[in-house]
Amino acid sequence: MEVRKCKVSGKSFEITDEDLAFYEKMNIPAPTLCPEERQRRRLSWRNERNLYKRICSGSGKQILSVYEKGRAAFPVYDPEYWHSDNWDPKEYGRNFDFTKPFFPQFEALMNVVPQLARSVVKNQNCEFVNQCGWCKNCYLIFEADYDESCWYSCYIFDSRFCSDCAHITNCELCYECVDCTNCYELKFSQNSKTCHDSWFLKNCIGCSNCFGCVNLRNKQYYFLNQSCTKEEYEEKLKGVVLSTFAGLQKMRKDFQVFAQKYPHKFLTGAKNEDSVGEYLNNTQRCQECYDANNAQDCKWVYNSRNVKNVYDMMAFGSKEGVEFCCDNHELGAGVQNVIFSDQIWMGCHDIMYSKLCVNNSRNCLGCVGLKHAEYCILNKQYTKDEYIILRDKIIEHMKQTSEWGEFFPTTMSPVAYNETVAQEYFPITKEEALKNNWKWREEDKKNYQPASIPFPETIAKTEGDVVIEIFACTQCKKNYQIQRPELKFYRTMGLPIPHKCFECRHKDRMNLRNPRTLFDRTCTKCSTPLKTTFSPDKPEPVTCEKCFGEEAN
User: Fold this and answer.
1) What is the DSSP letter of 170?
2) Could you give the number of structural domains in the chain?
3) Fewer CB under 10 Å: which end of the chain, C or N?
4) 249: domain range?
């Protein structure tokens, strides 16, 4: 094992013998940045939820894009136009100049090759989405696949008629749920599976007609963890004010306090073997991974599914998966042997230091926007033998310029730091960003209007065409409107109109989750040593898996 000092943060970090074996297999050097700084770099390239109106540089029609007009150097194409045969990315090909470092040459290429306005594929009636595929009739959902009629959510998969959720899979008619799976008509719940017709659940499995319950298994008609008859349960439910926003907010706060007295398992997830991290399911030998499902032999992998032998990856895997890749952002759909790259999808393999290469591209270095391409460097075509000779020569050149071995620097990111997910996990000030020569977007002038009407006390008291009214967020004062399908959803569920804008609601949901930091603790019950995201100063009892299983009812 080696102990190194991060060249950015100065923090010491370990590189194990297993890590060294992986890097040797991938034929790349061990990193000089600590895991946190490597993650920050990748996240600083990911604008997930900020969408701007602009004109497609190819078709001339108005579109939505993650790249704001006037701030991105490159042309921006609508997804349909970008994937068409109307343009050829190889027309931007150029020779490599060995008198200059690699990164400036790659950046110069990136700044002229058309980029995708949004990362979307095969959606129907889903204009206001990003990082989204195979969805229908959705609005403001991000990092989402195979959803229908869902709104204001992120990391949502295979779900229908859900709103204001995060990290849910195969759910229907759910609202304000976080980390829930296979649930139906569930509201204000977290870390629950196969539950239905319930409110305010945490760490529950197989429960129905339950309210305000924690750690229950296969229960029905429970109120605040106490068994009731059906009649008693319905009577207690009538005594709780759930139709008003004020009543729901009070219950949310009360339930968070109530849940803290119950044991919490050190790791959220199931069917994990020799794995450490948080929100893991069906993993084997995964270390320091977060929000990973169906993963084997991975380390520092985040928000990914169906991944094997992968280090340092942010999103997404997809059903076809990813194998043998290192230090990348956004890979998926059958990708293999990709290193230090961004947005590589759909059957690609053997790609290095490239961006937005798709559709079975292979054996490429320093390329941007290629489709069905092979043996290219800086978008220029070579024969196989020419490619191998030049590729190896460029790698040696990058080693001499100290560029070989890590993801693209944040200074090269085409989006501002505070537009990206990096600001969510690694928040900094404008002054700190500018000191590092990172881009920063100034906030829009806040000419917010007062609400055109007061918030209706209940959904039953919404009168007239409320979708034309303007509301003002009670937290940030930003204006927003209620969409017609959204209003229908609230009426169906008997829920009041939210008093906060989408971004403030998103922050509230994400604050329910633990940060991506591991702490050393011991099981409250048996004193077994644990690695957990529950910091020692948090009030919840934290137990090992065995003791948690004994405690759960």
Assistant:
1) S
2) 3
3) N
4) 158-265
Q: Would 204 be classed as within a structural domain?
A: yes
What does DSSP say about strands 62-65 and 355-357: parallel, antiparallel, or unpaired? unpaired
Burial profile 111-143: b = 16 or more Cβ within 10 angstroms, e = fewer: eebbbbbbbbbebeebeebbbbbbbebbbbbbb
Mean pLDDT, residues 394-398? 97
Question: What amino acid occupies position 421?
Answer: V
Q: Would you say 205 and 194 are in contact if contact means Cβ atoms under 8 Å apart?
A: yes
Strand partners, 220: 208
> Would you say how long the chain is, in residues?
553
Same domain, 319 and 198: no
Cis peptide bond prior to 258, omega within 30° of 0: no
- Give the predicted TM-score (pTM) of the model: 0.91
Rg (CA), the chain: 25
Q: Is residue 30 part of a domain?
A: yes
392 phi, psi to nearest 5 deg:
-65, -35
- How far, CA to CA in Å, does 292 sit from each of 86, 176, 219, 552? 38, 21, 28, 24
Query: Confidence class of residue 462 from pLDDT cuts 50, 70 and 90?
Result: confident
What region, left, alpha or beta, does residue 275 occupy, with left being phi > 0 and alpha being psi -120 to 50 degrees? Answer: beta
Do residue 216 and residue 293 come from a single domain?
no
Is 542 within 8 Å of 526 (Cβ atoms)? Answer: no
In a domain, 388, yes or no: yes
Integer Cα distance of 447 and 269 in angstroms = 44
Summarize pLDDT for 87-107 with one digit per residue, the tens.
999 999 999 999 999 999 999
* Pick from 138, 98, 136: nearest CA to 400: 98
* pLDDT of res. 125: 94
Query: Are 179 and 201 part of one and the same domain?
Result: yes
Cβ-based neighbour number of residue 401 at 10 Å: 11
Name the token pair of 216.
């229950």
Q: What are 436's two structure tokens? A: 């590092």
Q: Answer whether residue 391 is part of any domain.
A: yes
Asked if 336 and 380 sit in the same domain, the reply is: yes
3 state SS for 221-268: EEECCEECCHHHHHHHHHCCCCCCHHHHHHHHHHHHHHHCCCCEECCC
The residues with which 130 forms a beta bridge, in sequence order, are 142
Question: Could you give the C-alpha distances from 506 to 52, 152, 280, 299, in angstroms and in order?
Answer: 19, 8, 21, 27
pLDDT at 355: 97
Report the alpha-carbon distance of residue 524 to residue 264 in Å, rounded: 10
Same domain, 287 and 395: yes
Q: From residue 123, how far is each of 334, 342, 379, 537 by CA, in Å?
A: 20, 22, 29, 44
Residues near 364 by Cβ (< 8 Å), separated by ≥ 6? 350, 351, 352, 354, 357, 370, 373, 374, 375, 376, 377
Q: Is the pLDDT of residue 242 over 80?
A: yes
User: Other CB atoms closer than 10 Å to residue 453's CB: what's the count?
Assistant: 12
Query: What's residue 237's pLDDT?
Result: 92
Average pLDDT over residues 312-324: 85
- Which pLDDT score is estimated for 552? 67
